[in-house]
Amino acid sequence: MDNFDDLSVHFIINSALIFLFQLAIIGSSILIITKYRKSIGAKIMLVGTVFTLISIILFQVVPYLTGSFETDNYLKVQVLLSYLNTFSFLVFTTGFVIFAINDLKKEQNKT
C-alpha cells in the first residue's frame, strides 16, 4: 500500500506542475492578445489553452466523481478526456501556426 501512496503523491505533484505551466501559457496568450489585438491566431491559442486547462481539471475531478463506475466505464471516460485534451492541443497548435504565419509576417513587413 505504501507504494500506491508514493505513486499518488507523484501524480499529484505532476498534475500541479502541469496546471501551473498551463496558467503560464494562458498568461502568455493573454499578453500576445493585448499586443496583437486583431490576431485571430492568438485568440485561437487562448481558446486551446483554456480547453487544455479544463481537461486537466477534469482529469483530476472525474476519477472522484466516477468512483462508483465500473472499470470499463471509467476507462471510457478517461479515453474521452484524452480526446478532449488532444483536441485542445490541436486548437492551440492551429492558433500558434496561424499566429506565426500571418501576424509575425505582418510584423516583419512593417520594419
Class by alpha and beta content = mainly alpha
Cα shape: elongated
**Average pLDDT value?**
82
Counted up, domains total: 1
Percent helix range: over 70%
Largest sheet: none
- What is the number of beta strands? 0
Strand residues, percent: under 5%
| Rg calculated over all Cα atoms | 18 Å
Count of helical segments? 3
Unreliable segments (pLDDT under 50, ≥5 consecutive)?
A: none
- Strand and helix order: HHH
Report how far the terminal alpha carbons are from each other. Answer: 63 Å
Your description of this structure?
With 111 residues, the protein is mainly α. The protein has one domain. Helices cover 90% and strands 0% of the residues. The chain has three helices and no strands. The longest helix is centred in the C-terminal third of the chain and has 40 residues. The chain is elongated. The termini are far apart.
Per-chain topology:
Layout: H1 2-35, H2 40-65, H3 71-110
Could you name the key traits of this structure?
single chain, mainly alpha, 111 residues
Care to give the gist of this entry?
The protein is mostly helical. 90% of the residues lie in helices and 0% in strands.
